[in-house]
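pasting for ref
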Amino acid sequence: MAEPLLIRDIPKDERPRERLAKLGADALKHSELIAILLRAGTKGSSVMVVAEQILHKFQSLDALSRATLEDLCKVKGVGRDKAIALKAAFTLARRLAQEISHEAPLLDSPERIADLLREKNRDYEVENFQVVLLNTRRRLIRTESISQGTLDTLLVHPREVFKMAINGGAAAIVLAHNHPSGDPTPSEADIKVTRDLIRAGQLLKIEVLDHIIIGKATHERQRDYVSLRELGYFYT
């Protein structure tokens, strides 16, 4: 089997950095742009081969942008520093997209709520209950942390939840918390707290749109979150 081609073996004017400088970033393939972020190969591996392995593993840039540092480091040739560089690049791209829109992100689906909260919740070792405050157009005002620990009525009181909503001028809210176990299946306590807060919101004319529980994806469970509305726990 032939040895993988190293960047130093590629003619200088055909290397990704030189091609970008000469032709512009839009002329480069995904793998070439990723290779530039990786900077160099690891222990003799071709940086282009590593870049192509990354694309093969994650299949799309969207999936790659959502990958954790741990997932990235599982690719041969990608160490902690390279994983951090990739994560930083995709985070900057996401922030740029939000900045260009000149508006807060539109949060009108469970998937978008999960995307907003995923990174924040990934490393929590205990349950963290949060409230996402939204305006009348379902755009983000801000998120507020309410409590830590196993979710129950003692830790999550409607007074605290809706105080945040009223102070923030929210027209609607989304409830959210994480399951450190990785299984996002709602508990009986999750369901009870959700229904209690729905009723409180009805009295205050602040709609509770959903309750998102964030866990971890597995081979059997492709999504790393559940929506209690989608599961049928919200009143119609």
